[in-house]
Design the sequence.
């Protein structure tokens, strides 16, 4: 559910930024990344799981609203309760495709709390393992990354 919440939050922030002249709102650039097979499989599973969980919780609240306010004349009350309950349970009211950019941004934000030196060292270690491992399929990499860890 955290992924669906984060996706909704990012989209709301991006909409606000697009319609604002304020400089303190985020303006997001596209995020590109390459994943090894194991991580790509985990990524696909995470996206599917987030979408299923969001849908399940959303329709659980919708069904409850329909049970509480079943009559036609209660439509306004039903809608008000439904939206209030979504907010109370922190369930995003809109469905968006959980994109790779959302997953990448969550990871970037998680790493942002760590020391810069640790992040750089971990990134170099990852690049060496993934881009230089002969067992891994070839990847596009910047030319300077191809030299990481090699003796000159």
Sequence:
């Amino acid at each position: 559910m955290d992924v669906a919440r984060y996706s909704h939050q990012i989209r709301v922030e991006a909409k606000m930024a697009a319609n604002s002249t304020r400089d303190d709102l985020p303006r997001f650039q596209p995020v590109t990344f390459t994943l090894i097979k194991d991580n790509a499989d985990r990524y696909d599973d995470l996206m599917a799981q987030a979408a299923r969980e969001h849908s399940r919780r959303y329709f659980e609240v919708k069904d409850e609203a329909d049970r509480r306010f079943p009559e036609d004349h209660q439509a306004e009350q039903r809608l008000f309760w439904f939206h209030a309950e979504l907010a109370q349970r922190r369930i995003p009211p809109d469905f968006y495709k959980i994109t790779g950019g959302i997953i990448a941004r969550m990871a970037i934000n998680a790493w942002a709390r760590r020391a810069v030196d640790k992040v750089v060292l971990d990134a170099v270690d990852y690049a060496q393992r993934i881009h230089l491992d002969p067992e891994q399929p070839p990847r596009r990499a910047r030319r300077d990354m191809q030299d990481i860890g090699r003796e000159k």
